[in-house]
Amino acid sequence: MTVIDLRSDTVTQPTAGMRDAMMAAPLGDDVYGEDPTVNLLEATLAGQLGFAAGLFVPTGTMSNLLGLMAHCERGDEYIVGQQAHTYKYEGGGAAVLGSIQPQPLEMEADGSIDLARVCAAIKQDDFHFARSRLLALENTMQGKVLPLAYLASAHEFCGLHGLALHLDGARLFNASVKLGVAPRAITGHFDSVSVCLSKGLGAPVGSVLCGSEPFIGKARRLRKMVGGGMRQAGVLAAAGLYALEHQVARLSEDHANAQALADGLIELGYSVEPVQTNMVYVDVGDQAAALKAHCAEQGIILSAAARLRMVTHLDVSCDAITRVIEAFASFRSA
Ligand SMILES: *Cc1c(COP(=O)(O)O)cnc(C)c1O
Fold this sequence. Notes:
The chain is α/β, with parallel strands linked by helices. The protein is 44% helix and 17% strand.
């Protein structure tokens, strides 16, 4: 019985083609700037997203941290959504390591932050206040795709108010595939973008931060400072390059599987939030622990939460979705 792990799209195993690409990658010492595979990954992704430079880092958390620290000085603040990864799920790193104050704001149902709310939160130039310096958005946000018109408004707004605009694009490619646009149509609105290779793209490790030459120069110094300067990292970057070439278009399969899962659960009477990309949120109330145990017996790994998140990815097939729906059905009728 193959195990179906729906906790996250981080759980994927490198595909055979990806492993071959990793084995074959030419390598050098990346701290000296001499790893050809890392250099190629950085240039490829930066070019694709419309930026002058890129920086390969071990994790999305580090990528966002370096982005925030490269934009903000000590005593500056960034404006961010209450549920955003850069605020809630990164150990408070911007504040702890960067001395950057977060200004979290309530978010709208579509994953955006109302720009009138952002405007009201921007602090006047007054020594009582931290200096408002940056707006950080996330796309996809809990599986939701931010509307392109909103991104254009946010870009214009930040220009008017002297804020930089950063995107936590951990799942940028899920957004671009869903919209059927080039990723540049999204990233063109931002001053910097962080992309995860280790989520739906299926690489074992790695993120890339993209921005201008001086911005990435600053981030490169900070990467060394926080211990993220890796040596023959091309063995990992090769997985990212392979993913960009072979595992982007297939994200639409994950989206279709998520929709099929949602449809099946709705048919069973569950309350399921509308699906946009590869995440299904279902209300399981106080049944979370029992459901998790029931599914575990059938080789299906779930998180346990009343608002249960299930994530599809390249190790979840169509047949797997049928098995999951059957497991929910047998739980319901038990
Ligand atoms: C996973 C994730 C990150 C951080 O990635 P890690 O590689 O796990 O540190 C950042 N932002 C979002 C939205 C994520 O989902």
